[in-house]
User: Fold this.
Amino acid sequence: MQRFQPLRKQLFDYLSEVEIEAVYHAFTFAYEYHEGQMRVSGDPYIIHPVGVATLLAQWRLDVESIQAGLLHDLIEDTVVDKAMIESLFGESVAALVDGVSKLTQIKFNTRQEAQAHNFRKMLMAMAKDIRVILVKLADRLDNMSSVHILSRERCRRISRETLEIYAPIAHRVGMHAVALELQDLGFAALYPDRARVIQAAVNRTQGSHLDILEDIRLRFQHQLKSKHIHVERITKRAKHIYSIYCKMRDKGLPFSKITDVYAIRIVTNSVDSCYRILGVIHSTYKPVPGRVKDYIALPKANGYQSLHTVLFGPYGVPIEVQIRTAHMDICANRGLAAHWQYKLGAQVDVSEQHTQQWIKDLMDMQHNTGNSIEFLENVKVDLFSDEIYVFTPKGDIIALPSGATAVDFAYAVHSDIGNHCVAVMINRQLSPLSTLLGNGYTVEVMTAPQAVPNKLWLDFVCTAKARSNIRHYFKKAQVDQSQQLGVRLLSGALERQGLSLDQVPESIQQELSKLCKVETFDQLLEDIALGRRVVKVVVGQIKQLMIQAEESELTLVDQKDQPLMISGSEGMVVQCASCCCPVPGDPISGRLISDEGIQIHHHRCAVLYSTQHHHEQEYVSVSWSETVQGEYPVKICIDTFNQRGVLATLALAVADADSSISDVSFEHLDGVNIYVVLDILVTGRTQLAQVIRRIRRLPKILKVRRGGQFIEREVK
Assistant:
C-alpha cells in the first residue's frame, strides 16, 4: 500500500525481504483494525502507527520492535487483545505492545493516579524487555509533532508530562537527540510565547556568532591537519531553545547574558586522538578554568562519553567544544537504540549496561515504595538531578546526584550498607552522615549489625533509592509492631471470654480472614492494632465460627477486664497523645485511632473526656508495665520575671534533674514577666516531679505547673 512505502524505504537499508514482509504483515493487520478511525487532525489514524514504526526504523531497531510500533495502539483502541497479537506475531511482539498500552480496564480516582499506575506498568515491562521504552519514546515523539492541534488543556498536560518524564527518560537511556527534540516540542507547546521569543533572539545573533564559529572551525581544522591528527568532521551548532530557557530560568539571566549559546563538536576515530585534539585546541585558545570535563574516563550515568571544554574565543566569546569518537557520537545521539545497530552476539555496550543498571535500581525502588504516585515522584527526582562522582576506598566510582550525602552513598553501594550505617569517613576524616559530597571525594562507610535507619535521614537524603529504602524500613517495622500489638489486643479480648489465641485453630483463622476480606490473619491483626477493626467484633466472629465448626466445647464466660500493659517498646503503633503528654506513673487510657494504632492519654485529659462517651468502642484499657522504658515528652509551664539569663538558669535546673530540653517557647506577659513553656524528656512521673521542684527553688519563679491539659492560656 502507498502508506507503507516511506517505511519500506527505511527498512530496505538494513532488513532482508523476509523481514520486510513480516513488517508489512503487521502493517496490514493494523490498517484493517484502525480502518475508519481518525485522528483529531482529521487524518486516518494509521498515519500515527506508521510514523512510530518509521522512527524505530530510523533508529535501526529490529523487526519485532517495528512490528510493535505498528500494533502499539490496537489493545487500547480496538477489539484486538494481547492473545490475538501473540498468536499472529509471537510472544515478544505481544509483550512489547502490552508494555506500552495503558491500563484502560481499571478506573482511577485521579488522572495523576492513572499516570502513575501506567508508568509503573511500563517499568515492569521494561524490566523484561528494554525495547518497551524505545517504542514508547517513538510513540511520544510522533504524538508531540501534532500535539498543538489538541485542546489547550490536553496539550499542556501532555507537554508537561513529556518535559517531566519522557524527555528525561530519553536522556537517561542515552538518546540525547530524542531528548532534545522532545524538550523543544514540549516547551514550544507548553510555553509558545516564550519559545518564539527565545528562537527569535537566537536567530538575531546567529549571523555574527556563526561567522566567529566558522573562523574557529577552520583554524582547528588547519591546526589538527598540521599535527597529522585524523578528524572525521568538525561541526558548529546552536544550543536548543529549551536548554537556553532552562539556563535563563535557573540563573535568573536575560538572553543577552547567556554566552555559551553556540558550540563546536569535533569527531575523530579513536580515544587517543580525542586527548591529542584537546591538547591542540588548548594551545590554540586558552581554556576556562574549571570547565574541562572528561566523560570518557568517567562516563555519565547514561553511558555518555565525550571530552568537554570551554575556551576563551575571539572577542572574549566563550566557546564550548565537545570531542568524541564516531561511535561515541552515535551512542550520544541514539543511546540505547544504537545497541541494536552495533549488536554483535551477546555483546552489551556501555549504554545498555548503564540502562540495565538503572532499571534494576528502579525495580528495587518500586518494590520498596508504597504506591505508584510516590514511586513516580521518586523517579522524577532521580531523572532531573545533575551528577557527581565519588570513590569507594577500593577506588570504585559511584555516580550520585548533586546534593547527595554520605547516607545516599551508603544506599548506592547496597541497601544493607545504608540500613546499618553508623558513621562515615570522608577523605580519611570522620564526618557527619549528613555531609554533602563533592566530585572526587573518597567515602568509607562504617556499619554495625544492630544499627537501623533514622527517620531524620529523610530530611537530608536526596536520592530516590535512599528515600524509598528508609521509608520501606519504617513501613515494615510498623507492620511488625502492629501485628505484635494486634496479638496482644486480640489475646486480651479472647481471655475475657475464657479463650486464648492458641485455642483458635489455623482453619478458623483462615476462615476469619476470608470473612473480614483480608489476605492473611497477620493482616487482620494489623488492622486490629491500627484501629481499623473493633476487637470485640472480631472476638464475636471467632466465637461464632468455632461454634459452627464444633471445634471446641469450651464454656465461654466473661473474665475480669485485664488492661494492656504499655512497656514503651511497642514502637510506632503506640503513641502518647500530644494533648496531655502522659508519662509512666500517670493513670492512663488508650484510644484506637484508625490507621495509626493506640493513642495513650492521661486519665484526666480533656480530649479524652470530650470523646469517650460518644465513641466508647474506640477505647481500650491500658496500664504502664513495671518494666516500662524510654523517655517521654512533657510540657512544663513557668511564670517568671523577665531577667537576663533566665532561660540558661531554667536549662541548668532541668539538666541537674538528669532531664533534657527538646524545645522552648515563650511570650511576654507585660514589661516585667514572661510565660515560658519547656518541652522536656523524662523517664516518668518521679523525674518530672524532680524537675518541677528544682525549678520552683529558683529565685524569681512565680508559678510552675505541668502543661498539656492543664495549660490555662494559649502559647503563641
Remarks:
- Confidence is low (pLDDT under 50) at residues 341-348, 551-560, 710-716.
- Residues 632-710 form a domain with the Alpha-Beta Plaits fold (CATH 3.30.70.260).
- The longest helix spans residues 192-226.
- The two ends are 78 Å apart (CA to CA).
